[in-house]
Amino acid sequence: MKKWIEKLEMVLTRFKDIEGLLSQPEVINDQERFQKLSMEYAELTDVVNEYERYKELRENISEAEEILEIAEDEEMIELANMQLEEAKPEVEKLEEKLPLMLIPKDPNDEKNVIVEIRGGAGGDEANLFGGDLYRMYSRYAEKMGWKVEVMSSNPSEMGGYKEITFMIEGNGAYSRLKYESGVHRVQRVPSTESSGRIHTSTSTVAVLPEAEELDIEINQHELKIDTYRSSGPGGQSVNTTDSAVRITHEPTGLVVSCQDEKSQHKNRDKAMRILRARLKEKMEAEQHAELAQERKSQIGTGDRSERIRTYNFPQGRVTDHRINLTMHQLDSILDGELDEVIDSLTTADQIEKLKQVQ
């Protein structure tokens, strides 16, 4: 028996167990348990229905093959052949689909994301490239019908950003952008380079699923909150009141600053949303570190220090190093045409995870 069929049998058993539990008075009266089981039941329904259909088709094929072995009547033979012609292609499709349905869903997939971009090695050129990446993700979000909101930014005097943090709100935002975390490298001739020499610079991207208050509980007594006057590039004052906010989470040492809004309240709210997302990421990273095997089955670890992609301007080429994907559409990719890259990463990730269930 194939490994994935064994797993589907276990899913079917669990589904029937839940079905029985949901009709028991003690479960119905325990609203928390009833709700939890109802959600699990709903999540398993699709895969169970498809598996039941698969088993039914396999039985139809067996019956048709038995008839062909013993039948002499032409009409019976013709009916059996028709049954095989109908059932076999559907079985093949389900044999591709069912293992994919067994891949555990990422609970964060439907969430909004907080994206942090920081200029890395390369000084001004790294900051300019950070601005290019911000534009790339903003354009992609626009094409997807998602909303972009800048949470915090530190513009560079030469253009671009030393760092920028922004939220992308939209269905499935995390599922599409989660593979973007890591070091993005750019190779190009800076506008300030008179000899035409190619420079290599980097920017770091972190993609964090938005954390709700229910996901991460923060003890207010563990926060140190400072307020100060916000300033623009080069120390230029942009505000005459103490509206900028810096929050330090003392147990972890995480620090978040926000100064883009004129209202201290709005800056504090944005800083808390970023802090929650970073704490959630830290907690999940620690859990993943314990599950070494799970990390091996991911396309990229999501580690900020992992070099994931190179954008080569002289050759108009983009290379994703995790899956050895090279594309010669640099301009369109930087203009937000990311679907081909994201689809390739998603497929590669599914193939790796399929190995765990097949």
Q: Globular, elongated, flat, extended or rod-shaped: what is the shape?
A: flat
Count all strands and give the number. Answer: 11
| Overall structural domain count | 2
Strand portion: 15-25%
CATH architecture of the largest domain: 2-Layer Sandwich
Briefly note the CATH topology name of the largest domain: Alpha-Beta Plaits
Unreliable segments (pLDDT under 50, ≥5 consecutive)? 233-237, 293-298
Biggest sheet architecture: 8 strands, mixed
Assembly annotation:
single chain
CATH class of the largest domain: Alpha Beta
Q: Ends: how far apart? A: 11 Å
Describe this structure in words.
With 358 residues, the protein is of the alpha+beta class. The chain has two domains: 3-101, Methane Monooxygenase Hydroxylase, Chain G, domain 1 (Up-down Bundle), CATH 1.20.58; 113-352, Alpha-Beta Plaits. Helix content is 49%, strand content 20%. It is built from ten helices and eleven strands. The strands form two sheets. Strands 2-3-1-5-4-9-10-11 form an eight-stranded mixed sheet, with helices on both faces. Strand 9 and strand 10 form a beta hairpin. Helix 3 runs antiparallel to helix 4 (74-101). The longest helix has 40 residues, at 31-70. The N and C termini lie close together (11 Å).
